[in-house]
Amino acid sequence: MDELDRAIVNGLHGGFPVCERPFAEAAASLGTDEATLIERINRLLEGGVLTRFGPLFDAEALGGAFTLCALAVPGAEVERVAAIVNGFPEVAHHYERAHRYNLWFVLATETRGAIPATIARIEAATGYPVLDLPRLDEYFVELKLPA
Amino acid sequence: MTDALDLAIVRVSQAGLPLVPRPYHALASSLGVAPKEVMARLAAMLADGRIRRIGAVPNHYALGYTANGMSVWDIDDAAIGELGPRVGALPFVTHCYRRPRRPPEWPYNLFAMAHGRARAEVEEKVGRIAALVGGTCRAHEVLYSTRVLKKTGLRFGS
User: Fold this and answer.
1) In the CATH scheme, what is the code of domain A65-133?
2) What was the pLDDT predicted at B130?
């Protein structure tokens, strides 16, 4: 990563413009040009520095729902169960953590009613009970780490 | 509030914007609607919070933030309403939520995420949370992530 890559990761965390030529507009504020910015974003995506470039939607604000779930799975079963969980399109993020509850994933569904049904399908498919930990209150969300 | 066109826009852009000079025009042509309509819908969703932001979604591991600690706290129910916002306001806490306890397996009701380039950095941050919550906290743990298994973001309509 060079200076421009860092400027892209830090400077385009949000605020990407909604206009006819947004890359050209964003490039100007980063001191580069449209073609270079597009090529750099492509490279950052291919290299895995960025996981996505675009809008971050809020499932709940769109009329859907999300929740945090955990599974306690024996070590020898982790790969198999993780693959089953990842196969559900409702699973938006999934992390392995060092704990008895070792698989942690976020479900995002298009309707509120779909959460319990999705959890039931995951329990049936994996054979493990899901710990369902929906958000009751949100105190702060702003994940911005400098590159 | 969210209609069929809004949801169609979510579906074509949730995996990312087309990396072309006119990305919103490309979305519009795939949906068969006018570009200015797509831009108006996106602007409206940004304004009312249905879109949190538009931009780069980094992989924190690739940026060197390999220590990702989800700290979980068993906070007195009478105190969490006052303490939760104070924990969330700490500059290094990136996500902070109140969630239900699930006794006996899960006694924790406050989640605060702290990232660092090394575990010592996360431990120092967790120590500052511990000092803030003091005696209202009966127990806490830090769950370090060992692997990202999936990070696609939401996928409606798939």
Assistant:
1) 3.30.70.3460
2) 97
Q: What CATH number should be reported for the domain holding residue B28?
A: 1.10.10
Residue B23 scores a pLDDT above 60: yes
ipTM for the assembly: 0.89
Q: Give the number of other CB atoms < 10 A from CB of residue A15.
A: 12
Query: Does A96 reach chain B within 8 Å, measured CB to CB?
Result: yes
* Ramachandran category for residue A63: left, alpha or beta (phi over 0 → left; psi -120 to 50 → alpha): left
DSSP conformational letter for B102: B
Question: Residues B92, B114: contact at Cβ < 8 Å?
Answer: yes
Shared domain check, B129 and B94: yes
Question: Chain B within 8 Å of A40 (Cβ-Cβ)?
Answer: no
What pLDDT was estimated at residue A18?
98
Give yes or no: residues B71 and B119 share one domain: yes
- pLDDT (tens digit, 9 = 90+) per residue, A75-85? 999 999 999 99
Please give the single-letter amino acid code of residue A77.
Answer: E
Smallest CA-to-CA distance from A126 within A69, A47, A62 is with: A69
**Which pLDDT value is given to residue B1?**
80
B29-77: pLDDT as tens digits: 999 999 999 999 999 999 999 999 999 999 888 888 888 999 999 999 9
Beta bridge partners of A67: A107
Mean pLDDT calculated for residue range A92-103: 97
B140 vs A: CB within 8 A: no
User: Which chain A residue has the Cα nearest residue B63?
Assistant: A147
Query: For residues B49 and A61, is the Cβ–Cβ distance under 8 A?
Result: yes
- Cα–Cα nearest to B114, from B75, B88, B138: B88
Rounded CA-CA distance A74/B42 in Å is 44
Q: Are B39 and B75 in the same domain?
A: no
